[in-house]
């Protein structure tokens, strides 16, 4: 069952969304419906398996730059 919904959005956003919907051969209503559906499904499907839960926190978090440096060193080493 469909229900009417009124939204107040900036005009330029509405025009951009209409263009996007037209380009993707869908209606603005369907576009918004699919977006809202994806938001609510993500929240419902965020259960974590016991295995993943048990592994959480095992790998220490370090600055990303260190991994980049180590990876670059590794690549240099194997290229020689």
Pairing-aware structural class of the strands and helices? mainly alpha
What is the mean predicted local confidence, pLDDT? 82
Q: Describe the oligomeric state of these chains in a short phrase.
A: single chain
Proportion in helices:
55-70%
What is the N-to-C succession of helices and strands?
HHHH
The coarse overall form would be: elongated
The major β-sheet equals:
none
- Number of strand segments: 0
Distance N to C terminus: 66 Å
**Gyration radius, rounded:** 23 Å
Helical segment tally? 4
Query: Unreliable segments (pLDDT under 50, ≥5 consecutive)?
Result: none
| Percent strand | under 5%
Notes on the structure:
The protein contains 4 helices and no strands. The relative contact order is 0.06. It is mainly alpha-helical. This is Antitoxin. InterPro entries: DUF6364 (IPR045944).
Which key phrases capture this entry?
4 helices, about 80 residues, single chain, mainly alpha
Topology:
Elements lengths: L10 H13 L4 H17 L5 H6 L8 H16 L1
Question: Would you summarize the structure shown here?
Answer:
This protein is mainly alpha-helical and 80 residues long. The protein is built from four helices and no strands. The mean pLDDT is 82.
């Amino acid at each position: 069952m469909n229900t009417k919904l009124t939204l107040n959005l900036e005009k330029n956003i509405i025009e951009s969304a209409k263009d996007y919907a037209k380009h993707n051969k869908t209606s603005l209503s369907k576009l918004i419906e699919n977006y809202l559906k994806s938001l609510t499904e993500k929240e419902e499907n965020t259960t974590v398996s016991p295995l993943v839960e048990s592994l959480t926190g095992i790998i220490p978090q370090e600055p990303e730059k260190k991994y980049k440096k180590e990876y670059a060193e590794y690549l240099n080493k194997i290229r020689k």
